[in-house]
Q: What sequence folds into this?
């Protein structure tokens, strides 16, 4: 009987253990960082493994938000990474101004009205200018419990010389997407267990559940009357970017004045221009436009914090200082997917009826002269209120006023800003003299697109009613460059000796890495996810003399 | 009791109103789409018949090159001008969708329920940048595609009572497509066997066992599936 009970207990324990070692729909994100402690100004590298429930095409907003917050959930910095096949990786720059203390790297899906899952990893940051570290807050997370007998990593020996090349064979039973890294033993020992959860509080307004499932960054905001503060309903909001192609997005506000769009193919931080129009495409100059914070989440229920005296690893501090002094870049950006952007950002202008290059003609002093002399389909007249007005002539001679005017891809509502610009500034004028439709909005008088030589019209141009916001685009992927030869004059003090978050064992059965100038104990770690979500992990300790 | 029933009915009415308004809001948001195009100009009524595929508005979906798919749209395929026309009920407009931005579209037969997929095919010989729409019968290393055309057949004498100058005549042609060249699918078995002399015996057997009729789309699909298989061996 006792044996039977014990065997049942053993089976139960094994089942629970197996569940913990698997990505499930309840714990769909697993986050790994390259180290457990950083110096302010460092780049924290991370990789993410995602359950297929998140990566499926039917799940909207399947890109992953990564941010850094302190243990009390005060937001520090954030980024958005594209996931591909259940894996995402990138790096997070830790600002120089960060105080010494514990911080959390948080990864989460970001779509309102869905169960937003998250995974967070805690790490330590030492401010390199902080001479006397004070007591700092940390949560009571336990250190990672390492037990591995999977024998995935194969190496010929365990003792290596500095700068020696290590060949590592990978023996996994299945096709596994994995991360392989080599880090100092001390860093590895101090790693804390990640925390999983769901149901993060989202600060944005509701009502966006029915957006077309599509990759992209959700940008949302509200349009209100600048005087009364009441929300403006049924207003057309155009969101654009100063660029050499038209990248125009739109939404129509609801009863609460809310709007949202999905941006794609936007990398790094981008300045977007937002303006509001009524259904007749007349600018709403009295509208006040606000954009909501893209990183509006707070994680609740983690308040078991304690105060500790931080340990500062002087070797890590020295390495960071040398890297800063010699401007050693440990990671370089790699190429991004450059699909034809004009189609990704919608074919608003269509095939223009006429494109005029100003350099083909004599120099013209202002835009009025340009319209009079070289653009037969555009005319400029005085409107009823005495203000200049643009008109477009259709193929059958009909004249319609107030077409959508775009300058460097951004809608311009005040023509006076353009009148003074001659052919030294204006490079090309594209005219579409037929009405155009973009989804549920129409530009009945056509579109006039003006391009400047330097695509810099908006740098010194401020038009009331056209708001500018900086939004976070996708993070450009980064990769570790090849190790430099040992004869290089600069010391090779890589803080993470090897980091490869894109290993796929179906095509890659071995990897090779070169050790740095540093000696001591290091750990080679393999961490991967199989097709069914099973976690494969292994580690091997090596000595470098 | 009377009052209780009144209160319950009022509460039910309020609940229904709230639900309906919430649904309205959702519908509005889901309607956001990014189809681009220009207004459709109606044909002059001097030509008999309609130039549209199957004559009427059909339910279908459009997949843009940017990856977005919009389902349940009211579409018409203009076989005469080779344009896809879309009726936007929200703006009460009829739009010719930009061919350059379409990856594919589908049309559902109103009675049979059969769904046909159309894609723009760029044939270098025709020197067309944006391609022409072909119905896809089979997609493989040798694809089979179908062109639905409407031609204007002019009347010898103008019908004075109806004031019609001609009529639209619909025709379909089937082609094979290897990614570069279009070739007409032979009308007869013997012509097809001549095209593939190396698989003559195998194809003869296939014709015999499957009762292939060269006029039937499904049969032609089966036949070219077999040819692709034989070529892959």
A:
């Amino acid at each position: 009987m006792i044996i039977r009970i014990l065997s049942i207990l053993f089976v139960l324990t094994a089942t629970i253990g197996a569940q913990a070692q698997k990505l499930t729909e309840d714990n769909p994100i697993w986050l790994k960082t390259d180290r457990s402690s950083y110096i302010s100004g460092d780049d924290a590298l991370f990789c993410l493994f995602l359950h297929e429930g998140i990566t499926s095409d039917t799940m909207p907003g399947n890109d992953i938000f990564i941010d850094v917050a302190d243990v009390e959930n005060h937001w520090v910095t954030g980024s958005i990474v594209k996931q591909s096949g259940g894996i995402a990786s990138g790096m997070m720059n830790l600002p120089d101004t960060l105080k010494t203390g514990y911080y959390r790297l948080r990864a989460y899906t970001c779509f309102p009205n869905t169960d937003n899952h998250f995974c967070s990893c805690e790490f330590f940051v030492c401010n390199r200018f902080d001479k006397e570290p004070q007591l700092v807050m940390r949560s009571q997370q336990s250190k990672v419990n390492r037990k591995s007998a999977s024998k995935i990593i194969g190496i010929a020996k365990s003792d290596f010389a500095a700068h020696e090349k290590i060949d590592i064979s990978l023996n996994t039973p299945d096709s596994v997407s994995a991360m392989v890294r080599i880090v100092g033993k001390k860093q590895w020992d101090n790693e804390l267990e990640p925390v999983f959860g769901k149901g993060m509080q989202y600060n944005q307004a509701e009502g966006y559940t029915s957006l077309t499932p599509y990759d992209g960054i959700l940008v949302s905001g509200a349009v209100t009357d600048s005087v009364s503060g009441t929300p403006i309903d049924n207003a057309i909001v155009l969101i654009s970017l100063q660029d050499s192609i038209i990248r125009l997005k739109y939404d129509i506000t609801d009863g609460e004045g809310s709007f949202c769009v999905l941006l794609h193919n936007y990398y790094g931080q981008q300045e977007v221009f937002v303006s509001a129009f009524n259904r007749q495409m007349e600018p709403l100059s009295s509208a006040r436009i606000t954009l909501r914070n893209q990183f509006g989440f707070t994680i609740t229920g983690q308040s078991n914090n304690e105060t500790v005296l931080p340990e500062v690893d002087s070797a890590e501090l020295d390495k960071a200082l040398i890297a800063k002094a010699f401007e050693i870049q440990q990671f370089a950006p790699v190429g991004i997917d450059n699909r034809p952007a004009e189609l990704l950002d919608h074919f608003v202008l269509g095939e223009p009826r006429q494109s005029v290059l100003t350099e083909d003609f004599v120099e013209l002093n202002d835009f009025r002269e340009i319209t009079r002399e070289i653009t037969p389909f555009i005319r400029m007249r005085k409107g009823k209120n005495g203000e200049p007005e643009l008109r477009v002539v259709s193929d059958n001679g009909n004249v319609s006023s107030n077409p959508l005017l775009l300058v460097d891809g951004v809608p311009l509502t005040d023509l006076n800003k353009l009148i003074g610009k001659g052919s030294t500034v204006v490079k090309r004028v594209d005219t579409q003299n037929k009405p155009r439709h973009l989804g549920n909005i129409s530009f009945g008088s056509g579109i006039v697109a003006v391009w400047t030589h330097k695509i810099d019209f908006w740098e010194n141009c401020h038009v009331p009613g056209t708001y500018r916001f900086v939004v976070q685009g996708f993070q450009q992927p980064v990769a570790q460059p090849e190790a430099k030869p040992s004869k290089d004059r600069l010391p090779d003090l890589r803080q993470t000796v090897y980091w490869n978050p894109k290993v796929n064992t179906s095509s890659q059965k071995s990897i090779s890495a070169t050790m740095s100038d540093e000696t001591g104990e290091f750990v080679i770690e393999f961490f991967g996810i199989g097709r069914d979500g099973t976690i494969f992990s292994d580690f091997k300790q090596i000595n470098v003399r | 009791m009377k009052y209780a029933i009144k209160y319950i009915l009022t509460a039910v009415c309020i609940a229904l109103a709230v639900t309906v308004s919430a649904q309205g809001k959702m519908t509005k948001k889901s309607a956001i789409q990014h189809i681009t195009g220009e207004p459709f100009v109606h044909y002059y009524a001097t030509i008999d018949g309609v130039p549209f595929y199957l004559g009427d508005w059909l339910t279908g979906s459009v997949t843009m090159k940017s990856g977005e798919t919009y389902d349940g749209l009211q579409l018409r395929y203009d076989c005469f001008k080779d344009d896809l026309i879309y009726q936007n009920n929200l703006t009460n407009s009829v739009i010719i969708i930009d061919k350059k931005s379409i990856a594919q579209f589908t049309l559902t037969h109103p009675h049979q329920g059969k769904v046909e997929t159309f894609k723009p095919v760029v044939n270098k010989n025709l020197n067309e940048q944006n391609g022409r729409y072909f119905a896809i019968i089979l997609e493989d290393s040798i694809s089979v595609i179908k062109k639905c055309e409407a031609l204007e057949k002019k009347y010898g004498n103008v019908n004075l009572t109806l004031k019609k100058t001609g009529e639209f005549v619909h025709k379909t042609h089937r082609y094979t497509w290897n990614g570069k060249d279009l070739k007409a699918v032979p009308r007869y078995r013997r012509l097809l066997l001549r095209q593939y002399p190396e698989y003559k015996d195998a194809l003869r057997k296939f014709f015999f066992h499957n009762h292939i009729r060269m006029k039937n789309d499904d049969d032609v699909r089966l036949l070219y599936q077999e040819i692709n298989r034989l070529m892959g061996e």
